[in-house]
Amino acid sequence: MQINVYPKISNQIPAYLLFFLIYSNQVGVGVLGFQRVIAIEAGHDAWIAVVIAGIAVHLVMWAIINTLKRYPSSDLYGINCDVFGQLFGSLINILYMLYFTLIAIVILRTYTEVIQTWMFPEIPTWFVSATVLGLALYTLLGGIRIITGYTFISVVTTLWLIFFLYFPSQYARWSYLYPVLEANVPEILSGAVQMSFTIVGFEILYMVYPFVSNKEKVGAFSQSGALLTNLIYLFLMVLAITFFSKNQLMKTTWATLNLQQMVHLPFLERFEFIILSIWLIVIMPNVMLYTWSVSRGLKRMYQWQYRRTIFVVVLVIFAGVLVFLTRSQINSLNNFASQVGYYAAFIYPILLYIGVVIKGAWRKHRERGNTG
After folding, report:
1. How many whole angstroms separate alpha carbon 123 and alpha carbon 112?
2. What burial class does residue 370 get, using C-beta atoms within 10 Å of its C-beta: 0-12 exposed, 13-18 middle, 19+ buried?
3. Which residues have C-beta within 8 Å of that of residue 325, sequence separation ≥ 6?
4. Does residue 136 contact residue 285 with C-beta atoms inside 8 Å?
5. Which one of 190, 201, 305, 368 has the largest count of C-beta atoms within 10 Å of its C-beta?
6. What is the DSSP letter of 344?
7. pLDDT for 205 beyond 70
8. What is the rounded CA–CA span in Å between residue 21 and residue 99?
């Protein structure tokens, strides 16, 4: 497999759009109810766990960016084959394609569950999944530029929703944040690990890097997108802690949606229904970017035609969503994806960066030996 790829100029995107790609791929269905999972581990010190997880994101992104900088124009698939060889590198690539597929299934199944819980209890799972995937397929066929364009529009048209959290913030009790550091260090770190699945998505930088035209600006815009994500998650976590009591938060599955119930407008009731409807625009980039990454990998490794591969991947995701029916099955799926995401998004990029550095040092040593 060719290590470096050089897309046509017509397929390239400017670096500033990475701000929207990173932010959009990190903010998905998990934002609707991540608070309870973190609070179970760290109590009302859960906001500290969110801060630690955010710092970890920036550190891992630094490793990803510096890994990519060592190649003229490569992606995760090419780097794996370069560092670990064609055989072992291809195996890792297959595992990552399975990981991307898994995350797409989790996002789509979780969103379907929220719709069934809050709005339409009798709506079939296949109908919601087919609708979302059908809309995603229309954009996926256009390639990465069209996906990026949609992502930009989705961020611009939904970011204003954060201002409606002013309503529940009026009832916040800041005393709920005290005493600080009541949880011990292992509990806070455990909360940070639990936060990892909610905040993954930044690893998509591995895939879109070859398509960026001005690569020297990748670091600044990527880290800025991750920073905005971290600040939003921190704000939502603090708001949930100060709005709910500790026992209430432990029992609240969709804390962010419950907070939206405090929005009172004279011309609109049940504002959380509006949020859930608009949230389809938010999760679409997640589904599309992960689906595109799998299709891109199959094209890179096996030279499969992109358009045909897209249909195959979409069908696999659709079938995967239909497998999980009950609440316990969905919980098991989320727990498994959380563990896999922790290693795929946080641990492996560090190991890959170390491998790239060692590989580069070995090459320099060999070149000096040949010159001598």
Report:
1. 9
2. exposed
3. 125
4. no
5. 201
6. I
7. yes
8. 19
